[in-house]
From TrEMBL:
SUPFAM superfamilies: PLP-dependent transferases (SSF53383). GO terms for biological process: glycine decarboxylation via glycine cleavage system. This is Glycine dehydrogenase (decarboxylating). Residues 5-429, 455-725 form the Glycine cleavage system P-protein N-terminal domain. Keywords: Oxidoreductase, Pyridoxal phosphate. It comes from Rothia terrae. Its EC number is 1.4.4.2. Belongs to the GcvP family.
Length: 947
């Protein structure tokens, strides 16, 4: 069998049966009826022939072999770290962790929520602050989020500016400048050697340590800033905080940074989980996700996402940020790394790094090199007039990459795996001898940390591999991921993430490459990136692409920024209005606001398409101020809009650009190309369409593809930024690394290499087949809100309308989601894009047996609703309103409910073969927000024994 045969769910006989039920004699006939002829491709995509799993991995291994793996001591935001095998095998390589979805349905997500809470609590403990989020995308964008947050939160200063430390990463300066320029926020870059700059300050950002390693005491500067009503953010190395005073103790309002060195490989720049921690009182402005503690129906502690969860759908362009994807999988690894090592283990690692860095400094000082800073953590800056290139070359001869800061300076960052032999070899290559010990480079006494941290039992119980293995298994057993069941989330495309695709990301020839190595050491990465970029432009019909955006929302932002820059270059600075359909994903509007654009809504027609009459009215109203339109195709309502080319043409005639959201590209591959039917720019979701797994909420990859006229506006390389954050001849970056989350790109390369043009088209065709089969089977019980007016068909997803059932029974769509958990299913997408509905996307990877199992569950739930409508049971006493049911519920000594234990736990016969129980009952979400808690609850709160 080919990989495509393995990837697609229905076999030949199942396909024939499903088509028969739909009334079509062939799959081609069905696709002809679904996809409008005016946008159909008339030939296959120009892609290489599909390879087998073995052949694809062999070719990728050839690319990997062209990367040169050296000891990486470059630093600059990426540090040598060791991934404990127990974490690599049981998290990164475990589908129970990497195939789960964002924990919007908390009852089936308690394991990953606990793991994310461990991450949050690690950050809170080490930063000395009250609240931390459950990860951001990378360090540079996290600092940018902190700047925007301080601008929003500081009510005492009007018309002020920011001051940012010149010694944060150059990538960070560039990303922050891009974000600030788009929003019209003024800021200055300074090293604070002469104190704070004069004027009204919204806030300041300090580096701790600096990118060249220096550790300095900023406590007085923090006090000075507060006296001037400024907020303070400290960009801190989390591992260094095991030795150094925390930002909280220094008086900071915000701490921000990344957790890459907590067990994550270089990954050629990402994905790595960034963090942001704050004082209490600022949580309503905190971007990203936040795990909180509430309780379930039985009063048991239960975790859930709190406060900001999907707030873009509520506040749209007024949202706190456009963040939708986090780095959940990487945050889970980082949190588990902290749990595995505990505070003593983390401190021991930090002490060893500092001691070894001091020995390197002492040895090279004796050799005549000037050590620039006496106080540093793990990074030693060296000065030798005009000799930087010579020193880099000498280190390379010893098999080590070090960093060239400028013609006169280099730096060396000591990492976790760097042992005695390597350090001695490096120092010898640079002309010195590594001493057994070193004096004179101690951390400043006033900055040494003296408080206790990470005292919760979770950081002390699992330091043996056996204990950690069992803890991770216990957590994953609480969750419902793709390894157990179909996840029918509309707009989210939870398809197969094959083992063959996943394996190469752990190969050291890819994972161990620092993103700032010389180009000749990353030839294999360049081959992969160039080839993948070419394939993606062919699939979408565009001319160029940037892989830099590390989430779909980042891709939106990059595309909109390109549109804005294009208009400004043409002298159309007044074009600042983006037309967005009311049904659009909330990040569309939030991204537009982030790019400095204004939003005007376009109404939805009765068939779910863009209301062309309202579009014409908005074009007339806003005239030459229109920058463009953002549309999703197929529409957010799950239909191919016949008039999409007309919509694009209307906007083009008005002088605007067309942004086509790529969230639903899984219905188009090989069938249509947005770059050919009217799009000027699209972002793609590699974590949806191209098989990168969701990982419990990230990593995401959101490349932005453009027409030739927008190519020069694609984001540049932030590492090349000058002292003012600018990049010569290139736009400012939107993410820290040039290729964003490059570490997971081999997954999409493998997917396309193994499917080829025919396999990609088949993926889209079977996604459409599966969705229409569900519509056919369920539409008599759950009306489908939008279908084609001519054929009654949908694209690759459908919206089940529960509003009439709710009116008759008071059973809500959320009730149905909770009841589906008893049947062993993740819920469909709830209340988006229409409140009171469920959006279902089965994907092409589900076979007929699984589709029928879902259909059976939905039909059974409908029968339970009908009993309520018929008056046989009240909604308050119903099995649906009490769902989900835990094992503890149905095995309790007392049972006083209006239905049987069997109906609660085993409503259909297939559950006797495999049964999943949630670990908690229905969670009180409102109560969790009103009584907000994000600390790990004490162990005895769960009534379990522990030592």
């Amino acid at each position: 069998m080919s990989f495509t045969d393995r990837h697609l769910g229905p076999n030949e006989n199942e396909t024939a049966q499903m088509l028969s039920d739909l009334g079509y004699e062939s799959l081609d006939k069905l696709i002809d009826a679904v996809v409008p002829s005016q946008i159909r491709l008339d030939a296959d995509l120009n892609l290489p022939e599909a390879l087998s799993e073995h052949e694809a991995q062999a070719k990728l291994a050839e690319y990997a072999a062209q990367n040169d793996v050296y000891a990486q001591m470059i630093g600059a935001g990426y540090y040598d770290a060791v991934t404990p095998p127990v974490l690599r095998c049981n998290i990164l390589e475990n589908p129970g962790w990497y195939t789960s979805y964002t924990p919007y349905q908390p009852e089936i997500s308690q394991g990953r929520l606990e793991a994310l809470l461990n991450f949050q609590n690690t950050v809170m403990e080490l930063t000395g602050l009250d609240i931390a989020n459950a990860s951001l995308l990378d360090e540079s964008t996290a600092v940018a989020e902190a700047v925007v947050m301080m601008h929003r939160a500081n009510k005492k200063v009007k018309n002020g500016f920011f001051a940012i430390d010149s010694r944060v990463l150059p990538q960070t300066l560039s990303v922050v400048k891009g974000r600030a320029d788009a929003l019209g926020i003024d800021f200055v870059i300074t090293d604070f050697s002469d104190g704070l700059p004069e004027g009204d300050l919204y806030g300041v950002v300090f580096a701790y340590p600096a990118h060249d390693g220096e550790v300095r005491d900023v406590a007085q500067l923090v006090k000075d800033a507060h006296e001037r009503n400024a907020l303070v953010a400290i960009n801190a190395d989390l591992l260094a905080l095991t030795l150094l005073k925390s930002p909280g103790e220094l008086g900071a309002d915000i701490a921000v940074g990344n957790t890459q060195r907590f067990g994550l490989p270089f990954f050629f720049g990402g994905p790595h989980a960034a963090y942001l921690a704050i004082h209490k009182g600022m949580e309503r402005n905190l971007p990203g996700r936040l795990v909180g503690v509430s309780q379930d129906a039985a009063g048991k502690p239960a975790y859930r996402l709190a406060l900001q969860t999907r707030e873009q759908h509520i506040r749209r362009e007024k949202a706190t940020s456009n963040i939708c994807t986090a780095q959940a999988l990487l945050a889970i690894v980082a949190g588990a790394y902290a749990v595995y090592h505990g505070p003593a283990g983390l401190r021991a690692i930090a002490e060893r790094l500092h001691t070894n860095a001091s020995r390197v400094a002492a040895g090279l000082s004796e050799a005549g090199l000037k050590v620039v800073h006496d106080s540093f953590f793990d990074t030693v800056a060296l000065e030798a007039k005009g000799r930087a290139d010579e020193l880099v070359a000498q280190a390379l001869e010893a098999g080590v990459n070090i960093r060239r800061i400028n013609a006169d300076r280099v730096s060396i960052s000591v990492g976790e795996s760097h042992g005695e032999e390597l350090l001695a070899r490096l120092v010898k290559a640079l002309g010195g001898t590594l001493p057994e010990s070193a004096e004179g480079y101690e951390l400043v006494a006033e900055l040494l940390r003296t408080d206790e941290y990470m005292q919760h039992p979770v950081f002390h119980l699992y330091q043996s591999e056996t204990a950690m293995m069992r803890y991770l298994r216990r957590l994953s057993d609480k969750d419902l991921a793709l390894d157990r069941t179909m996840i029918p989330l509309g707009s989210c495309t939870m398809k197969l993430n094959s083992a063959a695709e996943m394996e190469p990301i752990s190969w050291p020839e890819f994972a161990a490459i620092h993103p700032l190595v010389p180009e000749n050491q990353a030839k294999g990465w360049k081959l992969l990136i160039d080839e993948l970029s070419g394939w993606l432009t062919e699939i979408t019909g565009y001319d160029a692409i940037s892989l830099q955006p590390n989430s779909g929302a980042s891709g939106e932002y990059a595309g909109l920024r390109a549109i804005r820059a294009y208009h400004e270059d043409n002298g159309d600075t007044q074009r600042d209005i983006v037309l967005i359909p009311q049904s659009a994903h909330g990040t569309n509007a939030a991204s537009a606001a982030l790019a400095g654009l204004k939003v005007a809504s376009v109404a939805t027609a009765s068939d779910g398409s863009v209301d062309v009459d309202d579009l014409k009215a908005k074009i007339e109203k806003y005239s030459d101020t229109i920058a463009g339109i953002m549309i999703t195709y197929p529409s957010t309502h799950g239909v191919f809009e016949e008039q999409v080319k007309d919509v694009c043409q209307l906007v083009h005639d008005a002088g605007g650009q067309v942004y086509v959201d790529g969230a639903n590209l899984n219905a188009q591959m090989g069938l249509a190309q947005p770059g050919q039917f009217g799009g000027d720019v699209s972002h793609l979701n590699l974590h949806k369409t191209f098989s990168i797994p969701h990982g419990g909420g990230g990593p995401g990859v959101g490349p932005v593809a453009v027409g030739a006229h927008l190519e020069k506006y694609l984001p540049g390389n932030g590492y090349l930024a000058d002292a003012e954050g600018n990049i010569e001849g290139a736009p400012l970056p939107i993410s820290q690394a040039m290729f964003g989350s490059a570490g997971v790109l081999p997954i999409s390369w493998m997917y396309i290499a193994m499917t080829g043009a025919k396999g990609l088209r088949a993926s889209s065709e079977y996604a459409i087949l599966n969705a229409n089969y569900i519509v056919k089977k369920l539409s008599d019980k759950y009306p489908v809100l939008y279908t084609s007016t001519e054929t009654g068909l949908v694209a690759h997803e459908c919206i089940l309308d529960l509003r009439e059932l709710t009116a008759a029974s008071k059973v809500t769509a959320e009730d149905v989601c909770k009841r589906l958990m008893d049947y062993g299913f993740h819920a469909p997408t709830l209340a988006f894009p229409v409140p009171g509905t469920l959006m279902v996307e089965p994907t092409e990877s589900e076979n007929l047996e699984e589709l029928d199992r879902f259909i059976e569950a939905m039909e059974s739930i409908h029968a339970e609703i009908q009993e309520i409508i018929d008056g046989k049971v009240s909604v308050e006493d119903s099995v649906i309103r009490h769902a989900p049911h835990t094992l503890e519920d149905v095995t309790s000594d007392t049972w006083d409910r209006a239905y049987t234990r069997s109906q609660a736990a085993y409503p259909v016969a297939s559950l006797h073969q495999a049964k999943y129980f949630t670990s908690v009952g229905r969670i009180d979400g409102v109560g969790g927000d009103r009584n907000f808690v994000c600390d790990c609850p004490p162990m005895d709160a769960f009534d379990i024994e522990y030592k």
